[in-house]
Amino acid sequence: MASTMRKVSLRNLAAHKVRLALTVLAVLLGTSFVAGSLVFTGTMSSAFNGIFDKVAVGVDAQITPRNNGSGGFAGRSQTLGIPDSVISQLQQDRQQLHIAKIEPAYTGAVAIAKKDGSALQSGGAPSVGVAWTPPEQAINPHAERIVSGHAPQGPTQVALNDSAAKKAHLSVGDTTKLVVANGTGKPMQVTIVGISKSVADTTGYVQVSFQKATAERLFSDGSHASSVSISAQPGTSSDQLVAQLKAKFPQYKIETGAQVRKDAKAAINGFLQVFNYILLAFAGIGLVVGTFLIYNTFSMIVAQRVRELALLRSIGASKRQISRSVLLEALVIGLVGGLVGLGVGIGIAAGLKALLSASGSGLPSSSLVIGPTPVIACLVVGVVVTTISAWFPARRASKVSPVEAMREGQTDGQSSILVRTIIGLVFAVFGIVLIAGAAASKGGGGPAGLVGLGGVLLVIAIVLAGPAISRPVIRLVGFLARPFGKIGQLARTNAVRNPRRTAATAFSLTLGLMLVAVIGTMGSSLKGSIEQAVKSDITGDLIVSPQNTAALPTGVGQDVRSVQGVGTVVQMLNMLDATGNGKSVNGAVGVSGDLASVFKYTMIQGSSTIHPEGMLISDKMAKDDGWKVGQTIGLTTKAGTSAQVPITGIYKANTFSSGALVGISAYDKLVPAQLRSTNVVIINVAQGAKVSTVENRVGLAMKDYLTVRVQTKEQFANSNASSINQLLVVLYGMLGLALVIAVLGIINTLALSVVERRREIGMLRAVGMARAQVRRMIYVESILIALFGALLGMVVGVVIGWALVKTFEPVLTGIHPIIPWGTVVFTLIAAAVVGLLAALWPGIRAARTKPLEAIADV
């Protein structure tokens, strides 16, 4: 009998190819995203590891400053580096320490122009200037080699790495512009005298090699190196050398070359792991939605096969065999879906890699790496998800009584939904209480987590109480069916007749659109808050800011001031990480000029004028640190510089600033010249000057800085909004997976319901309903179900998004919830269109039902 049941299961799958294909598609969509994310991150990890395996080769010890921060173009050092005195001491003690070679490094972030004069974009990869080390002096002579031309020999000569040279269309003999990100320098003209090959070369990576003396002048104060690499004499191990150096220089970070490579790999793998978690989160969403689609499909399959299963029971099949029969079908579907999903996932990974490479992302190029993890994950996830989804229908199938075979009508298997509705309402109450409590709290990570937990409880409530909610909601939107007369009435009746099926069908759409609403609400709140703040708080006419980089040299301020028609100029400068009286000073900026003339901020105490030797602090900072006006704070930066800075006023924290505003004289004491950089310059045009004319003049003056953009405050607000919109598009695109599965769910359910209601449709056709009317009935029913799912998802999603923004208010000063009404209306209209499109094939299939055959079918 067991063998017979297996044959029945397999033949049942083969006999319903369309149903099989739709269910397998639901599985593969979820598993393919899992496979794609694992293959992509595995490939990137392997590519980066291959690069870092070549870094610090031959280096036995490397000395770097402790607590070295980052920022700027591609990584701005927060410290002066290693003093020349340490290098001199190493030279003196090289025999005692068994040192073979000492190689100081001088490096900093740069931007270089392409042949057409525009900035060469690295796509997120480093764009750095380094000191050229001749092979005979280098610890690793193969780290960088000249493949064309010669090494730089003068202050304006450089060598450019091969991949960057090709991308910039530069060759030996060409002259171009170059900008050093930090310091007081201005753009300089350089000549390409050599093309180099570097072990760190990747797609997008830019390495400009200077003569050592030039690099030392550009990237240091003349008495520090960025880092120092050391090789040991034969017979001395790396560990021995590092131990000796640590004992001699305990104030610095000293590692073996192997540890340097390991740390570099750990850092990039940590980033890739975060990226992987994001991809897997969206894969999880797809799997959850797919789980309900599979569950719904198997539930309907069982309902349709009541007679078949009952007949099997009547000829001797046991309850366990019936249950196993359904689970066997699920197992086959899970295996097929997992295997196909793996193939599709590999294609997704390849497509994502090609897309990022084409967009100039700066990621390294390499062949796809398909390890055992994605293969096992796809098969396990596909089988487990499908089997779990089918378990409840299988359990229900095993309870079918043989007497059901003698019944003329089919049972719908519907039981009372009262108990599950009550349980669902309890979950909803707890979820709402958590969300409301978190929104009313002081904000932070804890309350945001409570909102997330409340959202999970609301999703569970929707699953449980969805059938009960579907009836009143569909009756509410049922007015849309009135223009269709009796056909519309029949469609509305069909939609509420089987609330379990309706709720399960709509849930896929509900979950997908709920996440769209959460992201949309957060995005519109952030975007709207910034736009409002720019328009209300910035009073300046023009804003000069970096484009595709984090900072600019300080020279931009002087050049802007010299432009005809420019009046007031305020330069905001990046501060180094610092501590004040033992407390961390976050969000501090240096200010050159009268900030109150171009920016509106509310003073709580003291004068709005920023004294050159003093600083203003926000009310948030004053409260957190307990600082007061008149108090002098001893600020110490990571560079080791310090200054006594008095607090001259307290202002109300706003969208753009919630930290310390440091006067220019105090800033100059705290930040060494080569570590200074500009964040933004705000300009008021001179009286009588035309803003558009001055904008063009400033743009021409800033052209040589390569990565500068000059905007009005309206343009500045729009560019910030555009950045947020780009992020939202990516997130919406990833959520599209869940929506695709939701559409498939509606198609699948309607197609199966057409089969289930074949006799009913045949009767309607027999009493005179035309084929067009049958199609119209299915279309309207689908639209009503889609609108129910969309309404439920949008309402819950907006509530969760609103609460999340409320929890961010104390952390992100100036942000407030803004409901994206445009997105809500568009989504509801789109849901109706989706419902219509999803019903096209089931509607056509229903219209082709032959009345006499359907009525005679038993």
Automatic annotation (TrEMBL):
Belongs to the ABC-4 integral membrane protein family. It is a multi-pass membrane protein. It comes from Flexivirga caeni. InterPro entries: ABC3_permease_C, MacB_PCD, Macrolide_Exporter_MacB. The chain crosses the membrane at residues 274-295, 326-349, 369-392, 417-440, 446-466, 502-522, 729-755, 778-805, 817-841. The keyword Transmembrane helix applies. It comes from the Bacteria. Pfam families: FtsX, MacB_PCD. GO terms for cellular component: plasma membrane. Residues 21-247, 502-698 form the MacB-like periplasmic core domain. GO terms for molecular function: transmembrane transporter activity. Residues 281-402, 734-851 form the ABC3 transporter permease C-terminal domain. This is ABC transporter permease. PANTHER family: ABC TRANSPORTER PERMEASE YTRF, MEMBRANE COMPONENT OF TRANSPORTER-RELATED. Keywords: Cell membrane, Membrane, Transmembrane, Transmembrane helix. It is found in: Cell membrane.
